Amino acid sequence: MKSLFALLLVVGLSSGLAAMSNDIKEGGLVEKIAAKTAAPVQKKSPAKTIVAATTAETKSLGAEKKGVSKERPFYPSYMTVKVENHKKITPESWTDPKVCAQCHPRQYRGWNGSMHSNAFKDPIFQALWAMAEKQTGGKMRNHCGGCHSPTGTALGTIKFDPKMGKHGGFTADPISEQGISCDVCHTISGSNIGETAVLEHGNTSIILSPGKVKRSSLKNAKSPFHETKYSEHHASSRFCGNCHNIFHPYNNFPVERTYDEWKYSIYSQNNIQCMDCHMVPVETAIRVADQLKPPQDLDKTTISGFAGVMGPYRKVVHDHAFVGGNAVVTAALSGKKNYNHDQAIKRLQTVASLKFYLIQKKGRLYKLKVKVTNDRAGHHLPTSLTEVRQIWLEVVATDDKGVELMRSGTMKKDRSLPADTVIFNAHAVDKNGKATALPWEITRFTQVNTIPPKGYKYGKYAFNIPVGAKSVTVTAKLHYRSFSQAFADLLLGEGKLEVPSVEMRSITTTYQVKDAKLVVSSNEPKH
């Protein structure tokens, strides 16, 4: 009873059982908790396992028999499909985004070319998915496909082609190759949170209900083309958490924790949801983070308008570009820089700040601390696949004659980083303790150096003031790239992609030397 009470208390404090009732069938989560915390019962001889797969495709995936069932037809994904009268689903069950664009042009412009629209076609993802397919015998197909192409996973149209790319690749029907399309999100009718192994959102814990009814956070929406239904779920970060929380499907280790990072942040405490930053222009997102207010509580915004061509004028109309920090794929797939690319760069360059702290140690020796603050991200910096992402400091100190006193974090000619570079990310290992960046191999993190929302981390350095120096200039730059050059070479082959890095922030300060000491400004921190 104590363990059950503790679990219920944690769930209640984190998001509230009342709020969660919108995601799951009433009592489903409580029953799940009770089942998982009950004392083990001595079983008799094991009954024959039911392995009724819904499609022949499921049998070829290498899925463990104990996992595939009527309740988990797309194992190890937690996605289920619920349609009226048990109608057979086809690609036509979901509306093509070009059709949606006729009444929702603003939303289509944002979505088209976004990471959601490229979720299936993303060449980095395709290559990583193909490696997983071959190394696990197909056990990760539905796990990855569930979030990157829910319709293709539900329809069973995703096929592996070993001739594509370096490691192979996947194809699907045309509607499913459009990734997270309009109708994917707007036909989600609920969450299977109560069924997940960790009793939290993640691993495609969605209920898809394709059909004429489209769901959204608008209470008074009407359409001549389709039926509409208000969904509180669509206005909550819990909706995003169904895919932006990923735990290993076989050992349950939390590989991606973007939703959890938000859930326990000051943004969550102030009722700021994922869409309040990622479905508005950068300028609005900056104000949301600085004032800790959702967009609807801000004055003089530029996000009002019409959600549909025949709909009422609204104070907040969400864009559908869902821009984050990935500026590589959107530009690579379109062959040029575009809105999504430019917005991603702007977000990266406004999310963090840098500050110097100088401490004299002994004689001419100085310790330099560079403080990196996560000012405007509602999750950690970086987030998602933190074992792959790289945010790092490049720091250089020179005297007035140009003599270099210290250098760290400058990228090498082969685009690798020096061993002493201060990198903000996570270090993952496999079951044998060997370093890995392949999600299906991860069993734990041995080091986590990400920066929480409104939190900070330091880079620490040291240098000596040369005799005769009149001044010392210190420059620090904060860089970001979605993945290393070595990782890109592994997935795509050498020379296929030169991974760009984004300079997120840069500061330079010159300190005068007096009596063999650096003159630090009176208003500059000294600890």
* N→C terminal distance: 49 Å
Note poorly predicted spans: 1-65
Alpha-beta classification:
alpha+beta
Shape: globular
Quickly count the helices. 18
Overall pLDDT confidence: 88
The number of strands is 22
Report the major sheet: 6 strands, antiparallel
Helix content: 10-25%
Rg to the nearest angstrom?
25 Å
Instruction: Give the strand content.
Output: 15-25%
Describe the structure.
The chain has 527 residues and is α+β, with helices and mostly antiparallel strands. It contains 18 helices and 22 strands. It has helices at residues 2-14, 17-20, 28-37, 56-59, 97-100, 105-111, 123-136, 141-148, 150-155, 182-186, 237-241, 258-263, 266-269, 275-278, 282-291, 328-334, 339-348, 485-492, and strands spanning 80-81, 159-161, 169-171, 188-191, 206-208, 213-216, 227-230, 246-247, 254-256, 305-306, 313-314, 352-362, 365-374, 390-399, 404-408, 423-424, 426-429, 444-448, 456-464, 471-481, 502-514, 517-519. The strands form eight sheets. Strands 14, 15, 16, 20, 21 and 22 form a six-stranded antiparallel β-sheet that branches. Strands 1-5-4 form a three-stranded mixed β-sheet. It has a three-stranded antiparallel β-sheet with strand order 12-13-19, with no helix packed on it. The protein is globular and about 85 Å long.
